[in-house]
Amino acid sequence: MAAALYGMASDYLQPQLGNDSLRYAILAVVVISTAWAALHFLLATKTLREDLAAAEQA
Q1: What pLDDT tens digit does each residue of the chain (58 aa) get?
Q2: Structural domain total, the chain
Q3: How many of the other CB atoms lie within 10 Å of CB of 10?
């Protein structure tokens, strides 16, 4: 799935960036997916204390 995403992004960027489109497509996908993961880690911290307390009681 990631290869298809890289290819679509590269094709989209080809007219503006030429031969460098794959490089920037990979960079964009990595940055976006890292930000997506970081957001979910931050969202998970909202309930971390409660989850740990519930796990200790079980």
Answers
A1: 789 999 999 999 999 999 999 999 999 999 999 999 999 999 999 999 999 999 999 7
A2: 1
A3: 19
Alpha carbon of 22 to those of 2, 10, 17, 18, 32: distances in Å? 13, 5, 9, 9, 15
What's this model's pTM, rounded to 2 decimal places? 0.73
Composition of the chain by helix, strand, coil, percent to 5:
95, 0, 5
29 closest CA partner among 11, 52, 51, 9: 9
Containing structural domain, residue 48: 2-57
Residue 54's identity, in one-letter code, is A
Q: How far is CA 32 from CA 27, 28, 29, 37, 46, in A?
A: 9, 6, 5, 9, 22
